[in-house]
Amino acid sequence: MTKITEYFKNSGGKTLFSIEIIPPVKGQHLGELMGHIEPLMEFKPPFIEVTYHREEFIEKEVNGELKRIPIRKRPGTLGICAALMQKFKVEAVPHVICGGFTQEETEDFLIDLHYLGIENVLALRGDQGKGEDRFIPKLGGHAYANELVEQICRMNKGQLLYEETESFPTNFCVGVAAYPEKHFEAVSLETDLQYLKQKVDAGADYVVTQMFFDNQKYFDFVKACRAVGINVPIIPGIKPLATVKQLEVLPAIFHLEIPNDLSKAVLAATNSAGIKQAGIEWAIQQGKELIQAGVPALHFYTMSKSDSVRSIASALF
């Protein structure tokens, strides 16, 4: 297995191509997901990130008792990672989240990853649970991503939660997330940078950013990171805009700005194909500028669809 950071070191300064996928809703077949990934393999992504999702529940009265009813389940991230590695011979990078896990469950998950030869992970706090107005960690779990990074790095030294447990060193390369336009819960960008520095100081090896549509936001963010001593690779995250609705949905969910020129291009389109093409062309221009700036990789949020990303990659790689 190869660490993500080794790919950057050995790239000869070339910008790499990588993607993130979402496990399908439980009940769908893995073959459909693989069919979306396959057209992107010609661009030789060295790694593919696989998101992790907590089950979603509603509370419902059943026979006079209030019960939690699962309304959405996704199949295991672990199994999908194993399938990707076997079929495409790439590094699979599972998301490991704080939300919904105790520290013991996290340790067990990481041991399973190590057993399968998965040595790259993206450590995240994760979103708040459905129906919660703030993030609430599971009893015995981590409240912050830097705590999760610390646990992973302790395991790399052979330190498990309990001394009595037979232990062995793991070899995880740890990525973490960052927000060029700041995390919506942070008081300021400066405060958010300090939280990111805590994760890097805890042992994170590289950073992947949330999507953005204005490259200057990324460039300013990287400069600010370097100024506070964050010196690990910072990978820009790109998502091609594909619908008019996303002009409202993406800023609302991800707390980001969409440039006026992109909004105008999307609104000027006369059909869905034209809207999608406007998003593709914008992402191509983003990619060209980022590659010229020498970024380690372009990381595409595919939403497990390949058509737009394939068009963009064809123009860039």
List keywords for this structure.
single chain, 317 residues, alpha/beta, 8-stranded parallel barrel, two-stranded antiparallel sheet, 11 helices, 10 strands, 40% helix, globular
How would you summarize what this structure contains?
With 317 residues, this protein is α/β, with parallel strands linked by helices. The chain has helices spanning 4-9, 30-37, 77-88, 103-115, 145-156, 189-201, 215-227, 246-254, 260-268, 272-292, 307-316, and strands at residues 16-21, 47-50, 56-62, 65-72, 91-97, 120-124, 173-178, 206-211, 234-238, 297-301.
Q: Layout of SSEs?
A:
Layout: H1 4-9, E1 16-21, H2 30-37, E2 47-50, E3 56-62, E4 65-72, H3 77-88, E5 91-97, H4 103-115, E6 120-124, H5 145-156, E7 173-178, H6 189-201, E8 206-211, H7 215-227, E9 234-238, H8 246-254, H9 260-268, H10 272-292, E10 297-301, H11 307-316
Parallel strand pairs: 1-2, 1-10, 2-5, 5-6, 6-7, 7-8, 8-9, 9-10
Antiparallel strand pairs: 3-4
Helix pairs in contact: 5-6, 9-10, 10-11
